[in-house]
Amino acid sequence: MAISAPVTFLWHDGTAEEAARLYTSLIPNSKMGNILRAPGDTPGPKQGDVLTVDFTINGAPFIAMNGGAPEGHAEYSDAVSILLTCDTQEEIDRLWDGLIADGGRPVACGWLIDRYGLRWQITPKRLLELNASDDANVAKRTFEAMTNMVKLDLAKLEAAARGE
Fold first, then answer.
1. CA 22 to each of CA 37, 115, 151: distance values in angstroms, whole numbers, following the listed order
2. CATH code for 77-164?
3. Mind listing the pLDDT tens digit for each residue in 115-154?
4. Spatial strand order in the sheet of 8-12
5. Which fold has domain 7-69?
6. Which of 121, 119, 125 is nearest to 142 (CA)?
7. What is the pLDDT of residues 36-93, one digit of tens each?
C-alpha cells in the first residue's frame, strides 16, 4: 500500500480561493491548482460554489476547503504555523506586509496572523544560522535580540550577533 506525501489542509469559511490566490501571489515558486466546485445544489454549497482549492506554496502542497463557519471545528491557533525563511530584509518586508494587509496582525518574534487567521513565521535564514552558532554568546545575543522584535530586522540581528 502506498501512502501519499502529506498535504496541509486548511479550513475556510468561503475564502478558500481568495486565500490561495493571496498566498500564491506573494510567495515565489507557488501556483494555483485545481478548483473543485459543487456539481449541484446542497443544503450548504450551491452549484458552482468553490469546495476546495489545490495550490502549492514554494513547491509544498496545500488544499484549502470552504467548510463553513468554524463553530464545532478548531480554528487556527499558534499550535500550527507556516514558516517561511528569507534571504533578505526586502523579502521579509514584502511577505510581512502582504500577509498582514487587509486585516492581518503582527504578533512577535517574526510571527503574524493573516486576515484568515492562519499563523505565519517570516524568518531570516541567517537567524537560524546565528541561533545555531558554535559560539554560545553569538547564539544568546541573537536570540535575545529576536525576542524583542515583532517583525524581524536582519541588520539588527546581525549587529546583535557581533555584540553591537
1. 19, 11, 20
2. 3.10.180.10
3. 999 999 999 999 999 999 999 999 999 999 999 999 999 9
4. 8-12, 60-66, 50-57, 31-37
5. 2,3-Dihydroxybiphenyl 1,2-Dioxygenase; domain 1 (3.10.180)
6. 125
7. 998 888 777 889 999 999 999 999 999 999 988 766 666 888 899 999 999 999 999 9
